[in-house]
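During the first year of the project, the team set up a workflow for recording each protein of interest as an amino acid sequence followed immediately by a discrete structure-token representation. This format lets reviewers and collaborators read both layers of information side by side without switching files. As required by the reporting guidelines, we include two representative entries from the current panel. The first entry is reproduced here exactly as it appears in our internal archive.
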Amino acid sequence: MITDRAGQYLVDLAKEAIGHFIETGEKLEIPEDYPIELDEKLGVFVTLNKNNTLRGCIGYAEPIEPAIKATIDVAIAAAFNDPRFSAVTKDEFQILDFEVTVLTPPELIEVAAPEQYFDEIVIGEDGLIIQKGYSRGLLLPQVATEHAFTVEEFLENTCMKAGISADSWMDESCDVYKFQGQIFK
């Protein structure tokens, strides 16, 4: 994973990227003097909260871009392209709380029976991705903690996020992945 210094840099970068986009309508260029470890390709999510309520959250679950670039991209997407919310306004920007979660690569959980997921998933440590056909849903590790989910509720809610029935995690045609996240605020 990354150092605390690099994580805090990403939080500041996410805020700067959104502020720059509000002011200019353009994507922020990658700064020249960033921590070199952020060249590593990592999954990254940016979460925006307003008065302790979700205001936007977008990210890359897979390590497809260097963390430095991914953070700029998903920060702008969280502020302006999350389909659940309208675009962040200039006034609103001043009162947002910023969170960046850096992810480990997703790992398929292989089980012989669905009940074995209960032993494989740790609430507060693991995030989940559930995929069935073309449907895919992801919940970050902190979601289970914030909502006091049991492992079963976490599985069900990840299925619902994918737009499939809550009990789909019990279906053999459904793949369940876990990952961990480093959270920076």
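The second entry, processed by the same pipeline in the following quarter, appears below.
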Amino acid sequence: MLAPMRGAAATALSELEREIDAPGAGLDRLRLVPTPFVPEVRLHLAEDAIVWWARMEALAGHPLTAPYWASAWPGGQALARHLLDHPELAAGRRVLDLAAGSGLVGIAAALAGAAEVVANDIDPYAVAAVTVNARANRVTVDVNGDDLLDRDSADADLVVAGDVFYSRPMAARMLPFLRRAVASGAEVLVGDPGRAHLPVDGLLVLADYPVPTTEPSVDPSPRRVRVLRPA
């Protein structure tokens, strides 16, 4: 890691480790399973993230951030697949996985031979999830829980961002950051299944994949997901 885990992230890590080691099975439990479209990578996912969320909130006694890290989102799966199928994109490079969630894309970059991988997410549970998932896949992924989107550059050779255009406020901050990353010399790859706030101009389609999803309350049928690069 970049630094010893402290505060909320350390607490979240302890909670996830207890969850992983707890006996029993059911919709409200995490399971270490192959990712549907990227079986080379195993993740600790919830059978039903909403049910898991409700149980954890009941245990905590207060509201928790939605556990986006407990599902394998289609944009991230497409990006991870693309990196593993085209390892030259990540090999020997410094990679930043933005809004990393489970850490799937960063883990795929590490498996593809990246020199350094940083997975960034402001949710302390996501930071913890990246830690346990990287450990399960026997790769090194540094974690960063800071909000990076106002920074001038990405400090990386390759920036990957899956499923980041899900809301107008997020898109309004994410797109300028990605453009600044390109201007500073980084390559940027985006994975998106047609989210409402994906920019309509300025993105070059590199690949198109039929990706199954583990999103809660969503039809599990494969969705068409594109890997794009700012033109």
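For the second entry, the following points were noted during internal review. The chain has six helices and nine strands. Residues 168-183 form the longest helix (16 residues). Both points are flagged for discussion at the upcoming steering committee meeting.
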